[in-house]
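User: Structure with adenosine-5'-diphosphate, tokens only please.
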Amino acid sequence: MSEANLDADFFVRWLTAVAGLVDREAERLTELDSAIGDADHGSNMQRGFAAVATALTAAPPATPGAVLTTAGRQLISTVGGASGPLYGTLLRRTGKSLGGAPQVTAAELRAGLTAGVAAVGELGCSQTGDKTMLDALVPGVEALATSFDAAATASEEGALATVPIRAKKGRASYLGERSIGHQDPGATSSALLFAALAAVAR
Amino acid sequence: MSEANLDADFFVRWLTAVAGLVDREAERLTELDSAIGDADHGSNMQRGFAAVATALTAAPPATPGAVLTTAGRQLISTVGGASGPLYGTLLRRTGKSLGGAPQVTAAELRAGLTAGVAAVGELGCSQTGDKTMLDALVPGVEALATSFDAAATASEEGALATVPIRAKKGRASYLGERSIGHQDPGATSSALLFAALAAVAR
Amino acid sequence: MKMLINVAETVVADALRGLAAAHPELVVDVEQRVVVRRDAPVEGKVALVSGGGSGHEPLHGGFVGPGMLDGACPGEVFTSPVPDQMARAAAAVDSGHGVLFVVKNYTGDVLNFRMAAELAEDEGIQVASVLVNDDVAVTDSTFTAGRRGTGGTLFVEKIAGAAAEEGLPLERVEAVARRVVESSRSFGVALSACTTPAKGSPTFDLPPGELELGVGIHGEPGRERRPMMTSGEIADYALDVILEDLQPRLPVLVLVNGMGATPLLELYGFSAEVRRVLDEREVPVARTLVGNYVTSLDMAGCSVTLCQVDGELLRWWDAPVSTAGLRWGC
Amino acid sequence: MKMLINVAETVVADALRGLAAAHPELVVDVEQRVVVRRDAPVEGKVALVSGGGSGHEPLHGGFVGPGMLDGACPGEVFTSPVPDQMARAAAAVDSGHGVLFVVKNYTGDVLNFRMAAELAEDEGIQVASVLVNDDVAVTDSTFTAGRRGTGGTLFVEKIAGAAAEEGLPLERVEAVARRVVESSRSFGVALSACTTPAKGSPTFDLPPGELELGVGIHGEPGRERRPMMTSGEIADYALDVILEDLQPRLPVLVLVNGMGATPLLELYGFSAEVRRVLDEREVPVARTLVGNYVTSLDMAGCSVTLCQVDGELLRWWDAPVSTAGLRWGC
Ligand SMILES: Nc1ncnc2c1ncn2[C@@H]1O[C@H](COP(=O)(O)OP(=O)(O)O)[C@@H](O)[C@H]1O
Ligand SMILES: Nc1ncnc2c1ncn2[C@@H]1O[C@H](COP(=O)(O)OP(=O)(O)O)[C@@H](O)[C@H]1O
Ligand SMILES: [Mg+2]
Ligand SMILES: [Mg+2]
Ligand SMILES: [Mg+2]
Ligand SMILES: [Mg+2]
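Assistant:
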């Protein structure tokens, strides 16, 4: 893992890149959510990350931690649904664990994200294998130990691996057996987070 | 015109024949009403004449006049819509004008029907050319002066002649210009009355 | 077309059984198809009776109760009831102070109510009738059956019902009802056709991208067909037609009425546009009612009705009413 | 799919503008999406706040008023509102006696309300929450997000609202709400799918001759799909499932709820069948409510909810309520 220090600007660029990716992939996310949910995940993520990008551009926070907590707060305040509180908590908890440092290492980011992902599982009473965003977040964070690119790949694979799973959490769980054979929308958007991270780090 | 005297039984057979014809033609009547009305003329006529046939079978009245007033009362009590009061009035007024005679001549029937048809026009504030049942009733009654068969033909022609007319009365009048090109359902059912009369008289 | 029914033949009777089960405060004669207030006849009060084809619920059965109708007669779906029903209802609700028939202007309703009035008068019941013809989509001329009765019926039944409840005599209740008719105008639009249980397929064809402007509550055709419009444009169009005809000098009651299948979310959004137009035209709004009140089975669409009111009519509008479909103040 | 809207993006805001125009007795913050009683906070009273995705109207905004909710927070269509809305509503209605959040059991609603409770408690507001999970179509196990909240929500909001109006403290209002949840069971069927404004096409495919048994109010799939059934058969099926689970020992409140596009005529006919089944099963019926209360946009279909009630719950059910969507006794 590189020793490059990540400053607030890096985090702003990351989340802005997420906003761009989400925008581009919104229809696909909604399509996935249409099959096993309520067909709003794309517009939920779009609304949320658009607000994040606007907020970060208007008044860029000074530290990585502040960027993430600000972004998390925006998601919570604008998304609604299941993904709003979950992604909001992910970013807020990660941001909090980064503290007030002006720059953080990739290892520190990974530690922060580990705490953030744990908070998601706690809030959602969920774990990997439930066919949720955790199935992309957990392997993504693990692979961060190797590299940003490895994290992107691992989370993407994690998202793909949700296809054969029977959902146990969220709206898809109502489908029981019939949730099998569809990729989880939240896991798919989680993979976008890591894809953007890798792209910005390049 | 034949001098044969028409008794109560003849009138019962006539109206029973109408019930049969209406039953057979119900779908067509509803289809016509669907184009320029509210798609219920067939079921309205079916409901009404089924009740007429039942009532006349259960307790056959003793005179032609009584058969017609009973039948008219049944129509009024069971049909609803525009056609119920109009056909009900037609038969009741005709029946009343036949009085208590045990048998009537065809000429007397014609005179009675003339009064009945006039009552329809009065009740409906309508006249021939308005694209209503009157366009079949009026020529039918006139041709009765010749024969039952002539009446059947004339009323049938009258019904056909409603096609190019623009409706001025009833539900079809809301269509304005767009009522042109469709045959009036009520005129069509009126022609069935004369068709049944001719058949029973044969 | 799927429907939540047993068979088409029994829809009206089934609905009346359901009405009876849900509303012990009503006496429902399922066989004879007459719905009356349980406390009818109300001593000293003029009684109101209305009725018409079924398929417009809650109109009229849902408007029977204190402050509104004393009795209602549902016909077959979209078919006027028969005179016997109305005469029976009149006999059940008449306290000796007479009965007002509220009749929507359709040939069938007019003729059947006229015969019912004769039957009732034969029984010694004093009867007056008021014809509701508020639908400005139809040109009222010698070339039509005249304007149809639609949403304005709710205003007539509510306001005349309150006047009757106050103890006004028959001629005055009748006059009030007539004032409401003269003060009311409606305009309806359809986004989709309705399907009657008997026919089982849509009563008219409306292409995917079009709407019918000026539709009737039985799916009767309107003034014109246009490519789909926004709710703002529809509000502009409908109120143009209504205001040109009504030219209100007084504040108005507004009814934004759903045809049946349009979500309340959309109806409220539409009523925001109605209010915008009325504000722009400087027409003061006294009260607004939004919901499904005079429906057309499963038609998607809506109608707007305005009724201009002086202080007296407004007081009667605000007066207590307690029916299945409309209730306030008691 | 034609809709009576301006653009998909503004449907919720447009509807709130319309709600505000029609209901001066409500304070509607269109920007922040909060609806509260004009007289809030009501001195000495525990306040009730609910909310959820839009598209289920009149739930919840239509249930704000004396005797029911103090505030409501509408989210995007079928999307839970955000915590800020609920916290804002709580602050607006709290008289110092605490706020009860009525939460339908969907992951999004649960999480957002939980966060809202934290925000409100940070502001010194005492908050309790009750989770409504009445939908017996979903098996409540560790393998699902648990039973969904549907029609039972109306019973919870009405009955707990009446208890609050009577001056009960927060813990007791909360306990009442929980009792209602435990006493309520629902089952829904869809004859057609609904269409969200954002998507513009039906949220699921239902073949012409089939119905979805056990559908959720967002078009979530049900237990099974079957060839179309009669309303009598549907009533048998739905009540079988409900009664097996509820096993009522007390009289029941019955809600026959329309999903949005099913005519009231059909709903009443269906409720006759519901009553027939309950009579056959010897379940005494205390009250019946028929209408569109917890809808799913333009979905055709219905749901039945039973709530078994003792004398106290029945008294609160009968207590006066004055909201846009439900009103009696005042
Ligand atoms: N309990 C949970 N824990 C973790 N993730 C969850 C949970 N419930 C749902 N999710 C995630 O949220 C995604 C759905 O988000 P979204 O569609 O925006 O919200 P909603 O389900 O409220 O419409 C799911 O695909 C899943 O990945
Ligand atoms: N004013 C009228 N005078 C004479 N006949 C009329 C009048 N209005 C309608 N009709 C006849 O009634 C027929 C429609 O009958 P029906 O469909 O049973 O009643 P409704 O129009 O009430 O649905 C029309 O086709 C027409 O022939
Ligand atoms: Mg979703
Ligand atoms: Mg007809
Ligand atoms: Mg008809
Ligand atoms: Mg959602």
